[in-house]
Amino acid sequence: MYQLFNKGIFNMNTPNIVKMKVEGSVKSHARTDIISRDVESVIDEPNARGGTNLGLTPTETLMASLIGCTNVISHRIAEKLNVKINKMDVNVDATFNKDGVSLTKEVEVPFPEINLNIKIDTEATEEELEIIKKELKMYCPISKVISNSGSVINDRWEII
């Protein structure tokens, strides 16, 4: 990362480059309380794995982040196009290689395939919807991080 800053690829004086701060307070081997801004959240394991089941697991949190980012960025793109999204439901089903989390062996791509299923009711034309689909892949930072790690994200759109 230092090399990228030195080469001028990242410039911290650019208004859109910001620092983020998220804090975690470890409550047990399975539970972490998270604080960001003025919001608190819990990441936890299920009872069967020694947790208290008070929150999503770390891997579920990753998938939830993809769903949330898909929602926010899709709506921002639609707003830019002056298009209304009346209703949108997003769900993920992913293939997860658990060898890494079970300490069996290192896994380069723990989620080789992720199906991002998007049901949308919108007034967008077919052309506008294609722009939303294309730009979502361009602008959702969670999708970019996951895709750049080697995971394949299959986005499946359904008009409702």
Explained architecture:
It is a single chain. This protein has 160 residues and is of the alpha+beta class. It has two domains: 20-55; 58-159, K homology (KH) domain (GMP Synthetase, Chain A, domain 3, 2-Layer Sandwich). It is 31% helix and 27% strand. The strands form two sheets. Strands 1-2-3 form a three-stranded antiparallel sheet, with no helix packed on it. Helix 2 (58-80) crosses helix 3.
Indicate the topology.
Blueprint: H1 2-6, E1 23-26, E2 32-36, E3 39-43, H2 58-80, E4 85-95, E5 113-122, H3 126-139, H4 141-148, E6 152-159
Parallel strand pairs: 5-6
Antiparallel strand pairs: 1-2, 2-3, 4-5
Helix pairs in contact: 2-3
Give the count of structural domains: 2
Structural class by secondary-structure content: alpha+beta
Strand order in the sheet with the most strands: 1-2-3
**What are the secondary-structure elements, in order, as H or E?**
HEEEHEEHHE
CATH class bucket of the largest domain = Alpha Beta
Total strands: the figure is: 6
pLDDT averaged over residues: 93
Shape: globular
Poorly predicted runs = none
What's the architecture of the largest domain, going by CATH?
2-Layer Sandwich
Measured between the Cα atoms of the first and last residue, the distance is 43 Å
